[in-house]
Amino acid sequence: MTRIIAGRHGGRRLAVPDDGTRPTSDRVREAVFNILESRIDLDGARVLDLYAGSGALGIEALSRGAASAALVDARRRATAVIAKNLATVGAQDVGSVVTRRVADHLAGDAQIFDVVFVDPPYDLDGQVLAAELEVVAGRWLGADGIVVVERSARTPAVAVPGDLAVLVEKVYGDTRVTVLGRASGVAQ
């Protein structure tokens, strides 16, 4: 069962698509948001959730005060579940759902976000992920924005775009969470 951990929708259960989705565990999601909330104020934040799956990361951000979330997934089953989950928590007016390949979405008209979640399938090629992170950093991430990447703990470390730096990297069971921010904002 996937549920919202905290905030105004805390405790609400979320549906999970039945095909090709690996939901972020409650434990990992709680750790991610603890890391985020020590680095950025989510109140009023704009959030982009790539490879959204059930939408749990974006919806958790909305529950904790984010102003809006764009949730992107290529699978229609996933985006139908995301739309249902947004309606379940009453957040359909602040969450937009996009059925599109992430690479195609990133090639489109850019918007600026404060937090970007990137939680691709564990078997996504590292070079594809690196190219997507480069585009996120260059066109989609605000000056003080943060990127949260989830990967298998067994895959090589994330290739970090030149103007981003690793703020935190932790392993939780089979999941590696890498939190990135602008290199100019990292204390040396």
TrEMBL record:
GO terms for biological process: rRNA methylation. One of its GO terms (molecular function) is methyltransferase activity. The keyword 4Fe-4S does not apply. CDD domains: AdoMet_MTases. Keywords: Methyltransferase, Transferase. Signal peptide: none annotated. Residues 1-24 are annotated as: Disordered. It comes from the Bacteria. Residues 15-24 have a biased composition (Basic and acidic residues). The keyword DNA-binding does not apply. This is Methyltransferase. It comes from Gordonia soli NBRC 108243.
